[in-house]
Amino acid sequence: MANSKYTQVIDLVASGDLVWPSSQIFGCLVTGATFNPAHKKLSQLGVGTRATAQIQGRSLAPGGMCLGYPAFFNTVEGGIDYQVILAQELGHDDPNLLAFYDTDETGGPLRLDHTGTLVVRPVIAPEPFPEGVPTDSRLWMRL
């Protein structure tokens, strides 16, 4: 299973331990990771991090969809299959896992043909826009 959220996300939100608009959320670019919905911490993936990117502009859309601006990973080596993990920073070295992406919009692997910037923007923003969000920001992450 790919492009999915970890099972703990619902519990983290319900307990108040994850507040999407204000928690520290980042994207983590990795290789060799596989999705296991029971994993809870970044250390459980057993892979090293190649790059990180803060997820900015986070808001809740109607219906509770969690949105945020795209993640940009600069100077990414081409010809490698990547995975992007959304994680919650907790102030120590083992963040909570939130979401896993390993395929693009065509169902192919996340990869660049040449070294460059990998932009992760999995969805188009909903209409109407969440209150207070600029309407010219139409590309979003979604959890």
Which keywords apply here?
mainly beta, 1 helix, 143 residues, five-stranded antiparallel β-sheet
Could you characterize what this model shows?
The protein is mostly beta strands. It has one helix at residues 8-15; strands at 4-5, 25-30, 49-54, 59-60, 66-68, 71-76, 83-88, 96-101, 116-120, 123-124, 139-142. The strands form three sheets. It has a five-stranded antiparallel beta sheet with strand order 1-8-7-2-3, with no helix packed on it. It has a four-stranded antiparallel beta sheet with strand order 4-5-11-10, with no helix packed on it. A hairpin with a 5-residue loop joins strand 4 (59-60) and strand 5.
Main beta sheet, described? 5 strands, antiparallel
Helix content: under 10%
Average predicted local confidence, pLDDT:
82
Q: How would you classify the helix and strand content by structural class?
A: mainly beta
Could you give the count of β-strands? 11
- Supply Rg: 15 Å
Order of strands, main sheet, comes to 1-8-7-2-3
Overall tally of domains: 1
List the topology elements.
Layout: E1 4-5, H1 8-15, E2 25-30, E3 49-54, E4 59-60, E5 66-68, E6 71-76, E7 83-88, E8 96-101, E9 116-120, E10 123-124, E11 139-142
Antiparallel strand pairs: 1-8, 2-3, 2-7, 4-5, 5-11, 6-9, 7-8, 10-11
